[in-house]
Amino acid sequence: MTRSDKVVARALDLVGTPFRLQGRRPEHGLDCLGLVALAADLPLDLVPSDYALREIVSAERFAIDFEGRVKRIDPAAARCGDVLLTLAAVRQNHLVILVPGGFVHADARLGQVVETPGQVPWPVLAAWRREETD
Predict the structure, then answer these.
(1) φ, ψ for residue 7 (rounded to 5)?
(2) Per-residue confidence at 50, pLDDT binned at 50, 70, 90?
(3) pLDDT tens string 72-86
(4) Residue 126 forms beta bridges with which residues?
(5) 10 Å Cβ neighbour count for 107?
(6) 54 contacts 116 by C-beta, under 8 angstroms
(7) Coil, strand, or helix at residue 101?
(8) 26 exposed, middle or buried (CB, 10 Å; 0-12, 13-18, 19+)?
């Protein structure tokens, strides 16, 4: 099983988890950054928690926070298991994970992590792939 397959499997396992801003543990809830960290097996101690719901998390900060554990890729080359940084609303960036047939994300409006079919409806600002080794 590839690293990307594992990211997809973990993301799908987290569907139904409650949404919680700055949430990092499934039993308490997750936001989009917590979802990505758990699905991509990124160290939780590197996940920032000093942001608000309507704050822009920059592509540069995301890459710095994960110290080379993710590789920035061309969004047009994104595939299942990759993470996309999107602009979901004015001043609201949002991370999603591509899965077969759609994407998984922590939806604040629906109050949980959901699998959404189809293409990501928001502009894509950046994309990353979890490195196969670290």
Answers:
(1) -60, -45
(2) low
(3) 899 999 999 999 999
(4) 85
(5) 16
(6) no
(7) coil
(8) middle
Q: How far is CA 5 from CA 2, 10, 14, 22, 93, in A?
A: 5, 9, 14, 25, 25
Q: What is the pLDDT of residues 7-17, one digit of tens each?
A: 999 999 999 99
Q: Check if the beta carbon of residue 93 is closer than 8 Å to that of residue 83.
A: no
CATH number of 3-130: 2.60.40.1120, 1.10.760.10, 3.90.1570.10, 3.90.1720.10?
Answer: 3.90.1720.10
Mean pLDDT of 107-115: 96
What pLDDT was estimated at residue 59? 58
Q: How many CA atoms lie within 13 A of 54 on its CB side?
A: 3
Domain coordinates in residue numbering, the chain: 3-130
How far apart CA 25 and CA 87 sit, in angstroms, is 24
Q: Return mean pLDDT, the chain.
A: 86
